[in-house]
Design a protein that fits this description.
The chain has 274 residues and is α+β, with helices and mostly antiparallel strands. Helices cover 24% and strands 47% of the residues. It folds into two domains: 25-94, no CATH class; 106-273, Porin (Beta Barrel). It has an eight-stranded antiparallel beta barrel with strand order 1-2-3-4-6-7-8-11. It has a two-stranded antiparallel ribbon with strand order 9-10.
């Protein structure tokens, strides 16, 4: 009696016996390729395992906060090789602003113009003096939006009243705050319109010469001012501008007469910007 052959027990499973060596060979070859690439680049094996989270590429690669990681990378380029970053991190690093060793932003220059006194009756004949002075400002921020300002002005006029030469000298010292809105390219042509205001220390001296005798009187007062203007850069450090200012609250007494030296003033500005 012929005995049937049990195929399952007699014929060995070729699939089972050969699958493991195949996987082993392929895995070993892949590992060998990775090892060779790592030796050639010095960082490939680490880069393969470095995570790349969109939006936080640097933190994902170094385990630190984005800002800390960026500063560390910028300060120590050698540290970057220890934490290779994905390509998405390159724009993040490139966009980090670099300090250029900044300085103080401001300007100083001379002013030339005229002012008109409000009380034309009291100052008849000397109510439209010419103005000469200086003004300057210094920014409190990097853009020049908020600034401290100061100015000093001298205004002089004269007239003849029934044979008497009358001279009037008006002086004022102002200090206040300026708000600007730079318009244009910071590295090129840029307009600087502004408004400002503050406290004014103003004085007036009137001198009269009659028959060889000189009579004078003066008074000083505290008021306030407000102004608006614009500066135009001509070169990197030279600018011109125009300014309109009002001065109010300046009550004075001269020769027993109560009046004021409130005025409206328009001047041109030529200055040095820094």
């Amino acid at each position: 009696m012929t005995r049937p052959i049990d195929v399952q027990t007699t014929i060995p499973s070729r699939t089972e016996s050969r699958s493991c060596p195949s996987v082993f060979v392929v895995g070993a070859a892949f590992a060998l390729i990775l090892t060779a690439s790592s030796c050639a680049t010095g960082s490939m094996s680490t880069a393969v395992h470095a995570p790349a989270i969109v939006g936080m590429p640097i933190a994902a690669a170094s385990g630190a906060e984005p800002s800390v990681a960026v500063e560390a990378a910028a300060a120590s380029p050698s540290a970057v090789s220890n934490y290779p970053l994905p390509l998405s991190a390159v724009p993040y690093l490139a966009a980090k602003p670099v300090a250029q060793g900044g300085g103080v932003l401001g300007g100083i220059g001379v002013i030339l113009g005229r002012q008109k006194l409000d009380d034309t009756a009291a100052w008849d004949g000397i109510d439209n003096p010419g103005v000469f002075g200086m003004q300057g400002w210094i920014a409190l921020d990097d853009e020049g939006v908020v600034a401290l300002e100061t100015a000093v002005g001298l205004a002089y006029d004269s007239t003849d009243v029934v044979g008497v030469d009358v001279d009037a000298l008006f002086t004022d010292l102002t200090a206040g705050l300026r708000l600007g809105l730079p318009i244009g390219d910071p590295g090129g042509f840029q307009l600087r319109p502004y408004v400002g205001g503050g406290v004014a220390l103003a004085s007036v001296e009137v001198t009269g010469d009659f028959l060889g005798s000189t009579v004078s009187d003066d008074d000083t007062t505290v008021g306030f001012y407000a102004h608006v203007g614009v500066n135009f850069p001509v070169t990197e450090h030279f600018e011109i501008g125009a300014d309109f200012r009002i001065l109010r609250g300046t009550d004075v007494t001269l020769g027993g007469i109560d009046t004021d030296i409130d005025s409206n003033r328009f001047v041109l500005y030529l200055g040095y910007a820094f």
